[in-house]
Design goal:
Strand content: 15-25%
CATH superfamily of the largest domain: HUPs
CATH class of the largest domain: Alpha Beta
Radius of gyration: 31 Å
Helix content: 25-40%
Strand order of the largest sheet: 12-25-26-27-23-24-13
Number of helices: 14
Bound molecules: adenosine-5'-triphosphate, magnesium ion
CATH topology of the largest domain: Rossmann fold
Largest sheet: 7 strands, mixed
Distance between the termini: 35 Å
Length: 558
């Protein structure tokens, strides 16, 4: 989307534009995307990614990708790799190498020492419980720690000892000396450093003290020359602390924090912690399970980077929270795929059809467009033979009124092929219909029949010359609009027990034996489907349903 059309619904872009126009902002605009590597990215992160990289692009600036890695116990290389892959798949190019907050651990340590030297930080011995008690509440001011006025020299020594592993984990912390009576609890002498004897995925055992997020973040931003530090609204109350850190250290630059509303999607969870539970407790197979609202899961399901980006453009950036209808996300992918997805035919519940008047042992090759509205996408070859498969649901022995498909003694057109009339029904011993015997009309390829009218158009494949496949039909993972809205109800109780139907032994067009793995297909009349390379064995391809053709969900489930 162009900068122009994005302008209306992105207040941050508007702010920066005004600042530039009035001469308040000079130089490059620098943003960053700062994920914590404690899980896979989800659709909420896509919003932040599109915002940060989008702003950099709009203003010809730059955006860094920085892992906010100050909690070694919860982080891992697997998550770093997955996040890097996802950001790059979305089409974002970060400036320079991937960064880590841990790259700045030395600098952060030095800034902590600077604060101590200025009398603005102290080592505190209160236990976690005591600290809670001293902190006060929203109604009551806190009380000063008994260690608040420790001499600077002692603080320097103790902090060095903390770093050198002379104290037990959790026994001491470094705190900022700000204001225990501040109405903003974040300013009541927040912790800057704590002792953790944990190996770190980047720095190994170099450190046994780790800086807190609120201290690390402004410093990392400043180290990278970030001008606009964009974060979600829950950090609004942390901004005074962000500014305090920048103002009280000799920061190389002064980034500005701006908050925006996080993305909430109905029927969806957007919290890495909760998504991790779904994986750990086996509600889904993995982080990239196609039912997951993770970027990897959505990619495997067939979502395209373009569709996620246009979704983010549609929802815009504002200050007010709110919930976006997941239907909008589905709209974005349908729109993208409708224009670009190659068409193919897939018979979900195969019912054999024999064309009794078609010569045995013969066949022909029909040429169908890859996309009915886009001749540039070329054509595909579809074999036509004496035996075909149609979908069981496209035949009704006793058709209801207005039936637009096949019925006894009625004719239908087979998409891109001939018109045929159903003459006879063959059943097995149990009475189930196992075959239809039909007559095709050789004069109807590409032309209307004379003297009668077919009763609709249905899809089909050759029985002899098609490919067996499996399809995974996904439904929403949760059947509750706000699965984690009630604190007293575990969100997993809202999992939709019918979130997956596996349909084995479907029949797809022969050309799909070499299905592409870069864009989903539209299986005509069925939806959009994407090859699942992780599941496709050597014997048959597996397709994930990305999305249905139309939104039938709201109606069906109400
Ligand atoms: P989670 O609760 O899922 O772990 P987080 O905010 O802790 O989310 P981070 O890895 O810290 O995850 O997030 C990286 C960036 O993405 C942050 O700037 C954060 O504000 C942003 N972000 C996270 N979730 C959303 C969301 N739902 N909508 C918009 N931005 C988000
Ligand atoms: Mg976080």
């Amino acid at each position: 989307m162009s900068a122009e059309s994005r302008k209306a619904n992105n207040f941050i872009q508007n702010l920066i534009e005004e600042a530039i126009a009035s001469g308040q902002h000079q130089g490059k605009v620098v943003t960053r995307f700062p994920p914590e590597p404690n899980g896979y990215l989800h659709i909420g992160h896509a919003k932040s990614i599109c915002l940060n990289f989008g702003i950099a692009e709009t203003f010809d600036g730059q955006c860094t990708l920085r892992f906010d890695d100050t909690n070694p116990e919860k982080e891992s290389q697997e998550y770093i790799d997955a996040i890097t892959r996802d950001v790059s798949w979305l089409g974002c190019e970060w400036e320079g190498d991937v960064r880590f907050a841990s790259d700045y651990f030395d600098a952060i340590y030095d800034f902590a020492v600077e604060l101590i030297e200025k009398g603005k930080a102290y080592v505190c011995e209160l236990t976690a419980e005591e600290m809670n008690e001293y902190r006060g509440s929203l109604k009551e001011p806190g009380r000063d720690s008994p260690h608040r006025d420790r001499p600077i020299e002692d603080n320097l020594r103790l902090f060095r000892e903390m770093r050198d592993g002379k104290h037990e984990g959790g026994s001491l912390v470094l705190r900022a000396k700000i204001d225990m009576a501040s109405p903003n609890i974040n300013l009541r002498d927040p912790i800057l450093y704590r002792i953790r004897y944990a190996s770190h995925h980047q720095t190994g055992d170099t450190w046994c003290i780790y800086p807190m997020y609120d201290f690390t973040h402004p410093i990392s931003d400043a180290m990278e020359g970030v001008t606009h530090s964009l974060c979600t609204l829950e950090f609004e109350d942390h901004r005074p602390l962000y500014d305090w850190v920048i103002d009280n250290i000799s920061a190389p630059c002064k980034p500005r924090q701006i908050e925006f509303a996080r993305l909430n999607l109905n029927y969806t969870i957007t919290s890495k912690r909760k998504l991790k539970r779904l994986v750990d407790e086996g509600f889904v197979e993995s982080w990239d399970d196609p039912r997951m609202p993770t970027i990897s899961g959505m990619r495997r399901r067939g979502y395209t980077p373009q569709s996620l980006r246009s979704f983010c453009d549609m929802i815009g950036i504002n200050k007010a929270g709110g919930t976006v209808d997941v239907g909008m996300l589905e709209h974005a992918i349908r729109e993208d795929l409708n224009a670009r997805a190659p068409r193919a035919m897939c018979v979900m519940r195969p019912l054999k059809v024999t064309l009794t008047n078609y010569p045995e042992g013969e066949g022909e090759t029909l040429t169908l467009p890859v996309h009915p509205q886009d001749p540039e996408m070329g054509t595909r070859e579809v074999p036509w033979t004496r035996t075909l498969y149609i979908d069981r649901e496209d035949f009704a022995e006793e058709p209801p009124r207005k039936w637009k498909r096949l019925a006894p003694d009625q004719a239908v057109r087979l998409r891109g092929g001939y018109v045929m009339t159903c003459k006879d029904i063959v059943r097995d011993d149990s009475g189930e219909i196992v075959e239809l015997r039909c007559e095709y009309d050789p004069a109807t390829l590409g032309v209307n029949p004379e003297g009668y009218k077919p009763n609709g158009v249905i899809h089909w494949v050759s029985a002899e010359d098609s490919v067996e496949a499996d399809v995974y039909l996904y439904d929403r993972l949760f059947n509750h609009e706000a699965p984690d809205s009630d604190k007293d109800v575990d969100f997993v109780t809202h999992i939709n027990s019918e979130n997956l139907v596996v349909q084995e032994g479907v029949r797809v067009e022969k050309s799909l034996a070499q299905a592409r793995n870069d864009i989903p297909y539209q299986f005509e009349r069925e939806g959009y489907f994407f090859l699942d390379e992780l599941r496709s064995g050597t014997d048959r391809p597996v397709f994930n349903r990305t999305v249905t053709l139309r939104d039938s969900w709201a109606k069906a489930k109400k």
